[in-house]
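Now for our target.
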Amino acid sequence: MFTFLKAQAVSLTASCIDFLATILIVEVLHDWYLWASITGTLLGGLTYFILGRNWVFGGINKKIGPQLARYFVVWIGYLILNAGFVYLITHYLGSNYVVSKVSVSVIMAISYNYLLQKKFVFK
């Protein structure tokens, strides 16, 4: 349970970085929401890997190469699913891009990220 709580704290931190980057890119740089979402996902993913490896899953004692390779596979899947669903919800349902991104991120955190990080990436 403690590992799960730490993972959720790291996920929240990475999500804050993700959302902040996304919103700044759209609102300040006036760039396309999908590009901003992908960039935010990249920064959030980097944050999650570093904190997850070092603090949550105790992976610092293991070789980084295999962990990074497994993380990349999981992250690419996350990026594709996240960007795809954000686009679909924003473009076809007319939702605000922030609402779309938050909704998709919550669903992905519950159904995708934690289990794959624990059972596959940092096993």
About this structure: The radius of gyration is 14 Å. The chain has one domain: 2-121. The chain is about 85% helix and 0% strand. Residues 2-121 form one domain.
